[in-house]
Every structure is written in C-alpha cells, then in structure tokens.
Predict the structure of Bifunctional protein GlmU.
Amino acid sequence: MTDEKLAIVVLAAGQGTRMKSALPKLLHPLAGAPIVAHVLATARALDAARVLAVVRHERDLVAAAVEAELPGTVIVDQDDVPGTGRAVELALDALGDFDGEVLVLNGDVPLLNADTLAGFLAQHRGTGVAASVLSAHYADPSGYGRIVRSGDGAFDRIVEQKDASEAELALDEINAGIYAFGAGALRDQLANLTTDNAQGEKYLTDVIGLLRAAGSEVEALPVSEPWLVAGINDRAQLAETAARLNALIVRGWQLNGVTIEDPATTWIDLAVRIEPDVTIRPGTQLKGATAIATGAVVGPDTTLVDCEIGANAEVKRTDATLAVIGEGASVGPFAYLRPGTVLDASGKIGTFVETKNARIGRGSKVPHLSYIGDTEIGVESNVGAGSITANYDGVNKHRTSIGSHVRTGSHGVFVAPVTIGDGAYTGAGTVVRKDVPAGALAINVAPQRNIEGWVEQHRSGTAAAEAAAAAREARETDVD
Ligand code: UD1
Ligand code: CA
C-alpha cells in the first residue's frame, strides 16, 4: 500500500569528480545496473507517495536511467548553486506543501536495502524527532562526514571531512548520507543554509546542526552492518562495492540450490536467473538477463551475456552473447557465440567454433574449428572440421541453409547464398558454390596430380631434396 505520508528524494546531481570518468558516476554499472538504479529499486520497494530525483551533471543521461528504473519519478533540476543542501531545497520546492516525512537518499550509496531503510523510517517515526540520520562505525572513516556527539552521547552535528578538526577526523562514526526529516522542519532550516565552508557548497548536513541549534531533537541511528551504507566516490570504492554485492548475490544463489564452485571468481548480475542444481565452475561471468535451467554446467572461464541455457546443457570456456542453448546441448571449450545463435536440444558447438545468427537444429553438430554465420542447419546433421560459411560478398550478407541428416566433409566452404538438401554429403575440401540436392554428394576438388621428381629438380640442395634422393636410391636398390 502506498505510504501517503512519505516522499523520497534521491540525490543524483553531483559531478562525481573523484571517479575521473567521462561516464557520469551514477551510471557506472554495478551487477549489471547503473549505481543510481540500485537506489531507485530500494526507493520503489518503500512505495512512497512521491519519489523525486535531483539531477544536473549529464542531466539527460542520468534522468533517462532514473526513468528507466522507476517510471514516474519526478525529475528535479538543480541550478548552479552546488551542494546536497541545495539539491534537497529544490526537491522540497517541487514537493509543494507536502507535510509527511522526507527520506533523502544519496544516489551513490547503492547497497542499502529496503528492509534496513524501512526499519530506519519506522524508528524515526517512532521517536518523533525532527530528523534522523543513518550512521555507521568505520575502521577507516576517511572521506565521509563525521557524526559529532556531545559529552552525554547525544547527536550534535555532522562535520564534513574537509571542514573537520584533527580531533573530529579521529571520530569513527560516519554520516551514511541517508536522512529522514519532517518536511516542515526541513523546509524551515534549508532556508538558513549558507555556502560558508571549505567546499563553498550548501551542505545538507548543516541542516542537522541548525535543527539542533533551534532546539529540535535529532537522532543518529547506526546500521548493523557498516557495508550497507558504503558510498561510491572513486573506482576503488566501486570495485569494493561490486565485490560485496556480488558476494551477496552468489550466496543467495547458493542458498537456492546452485553449486558455485568458486565464489571469488564468479560474477553474477542482479537480473540473472538460475534454477536449482545448476553448477557454475570457476572464472564465470553471468551477465544481463542470462537464464540457466536446472542441471546445466557452466564454466570454467565462461562469459554469458543475455543468454538462455537449457536444462542439462554444458557450456565450457565460452564467450556468448544473446545465444539460446537447448536442453542437453554442449558448447566449447573455446567457443565464441555471437548474437542470434540458437543451438537446439542435444546439439553441439565445439572447440574453436564461432557462430553468429545461426540456428543449429536438434542433435546437429559443429564440432571443430569452424565459422557458421547467417545459417540454418536442420536436425542430426554434422558439419566437418574446419568449415566456413562464406556469408559476406564484400557488400551484402547471405544465408546458408543446410538440411537435416547432412554430412559435410572437413574443410568445406559454403559460399552463400547456398542450400544443401536433406541427407546430402560434401567431400573434404569442397567449395560449395551451387546448391546441393537432397541425397547428392558434392565434390569439386580437381583430381590430384603427382609430378614425380619435382623436388629433386626444383629444390636441389635442400634437405627435402636430399631426403627425396635417398628415398629414390633406396627404392632403386630394392628393385635391383
Ligand atoms: C556526503 C555527505 C557526507 C556523507 C557522505 C556519505 C554532504 C555535504 N556530505 O558526502 O557527510 O558522509 O555523503 O556517502 O552531504 N549531489 C547532488 N547535488 C550536489 C552535490 C551532490 O545531488 O550539488 C549528490 C551526488 O550526486 C551524490 C550525493 O549527492 O549522489 C552525495 O554527494 P557527494 O559529493 O558524493 O558527497 P560526499 O562527499 O560523499
Ligand atoms: Ca559520496
């Protein structure tokens, strides 16, 4: 049920300078989704009456990511007054006379989950204070704002790293960047913010000190697990956060009945789906909307992007994107499956095989060293080792059609467009330029001609010529 008294403001306008990146910080991917999308997913779970996102840096890109994750989010544009305080001030303008609770979420704190946030909100509402701040104790608090408490332990104010004294820098309780405010109290104090600090910004954190000075009560509530509120400012923090999230995702699948042999080298995006009794071997990345059915064995050293893997299939040392692998089929080792590859049940794409836009029918096999592109293959056919579909004439791509129960010889070239009928054979080394009717054998290799004595005549003085001479002499002695 929608919480009519709750508005959520996601701060997403900052420049993310410390990332040193052309891509806006909040759009860097984390388990396959932009950082900011994780925050919006959490916001969605709380079912607030209003969700607003404040944007400015790379405004259109960030706004598009916000809308993609949570359609209906109100986009608020920050002006050129910098700081988290200014961002919230503009969001409050957009909220009009809303008078419930305002939950403010830093867009770069992606691991916080809805349960923790719901608990925080309930605690805030329970105490009836003007504002609550989520905090955490960090062994290394550098980079974060510190929670300053007075002698009796009561929460006093937040000091930013850049404005902190030596003694304040030594404090290990950090401001997580997650706040709950009564809308009225927040609105009153935002009006009093100044940019009088080391960064020349309107700090949202100063609202806390102002509320305290005005006699309001404020609470800092520490989270149980500090990593829940880890912020991402630079790429080292991005990698740490990604590893933490991945460990959670891997563990989730393990508890759901998936064997994951080496969690440290297995990376699974949030949107991936895996059935019980799948085995994931070391060095495997499962990305995008990949789905794996029960009994399949994937890896080692395999990357699957947006792939569908059927039950009991085996995919070894493979790189695949937008491929569909049927039940009991086998792929790799060392296969490269490009978009549009469909391998039906019990089929095989073997070693050093590249496929693209190719449908390989039930039980059909492309076992070794081949390129199969823009092709359909029927059922139970076998494509010989080292076969190439020559699908590109330099201007256009053309299709190759191979029927059912076909046997093609090794080192075949299929010059598309070309069709091989059901039950047909091709000889080794055939360059198939014309259609092959069903049941025919196609061969076009010229008869072999042996030119006796050629090496001794044309390569005299070489080791080959000496070996040839020795063999000839031995033959002549035998004859004598
Ligand atoms: C902020 C807090 C700090 C806290 C830390 C937690 C302030 C002043 N400091 O610091 O106390 O420990 O988060 O992670 O709030 N943003 C805007 N508009 C702006 C500036 C920032 O929307 O003008 C957004 C950013 O996109 C980001 C968030 O606000 O999502 C936090 O900004 P950032 O610059 O990363 O603040 P920190 O220095 O990490
Ligand atoms: Ca930050």
User: Anything to note?
Assistant: The chain has two domains: 3-229, 235-442. The domain at 235-442 is CATH 2.160.10.10 (UDP N-Acetylglucosamine Acyltransferase; domain 1).
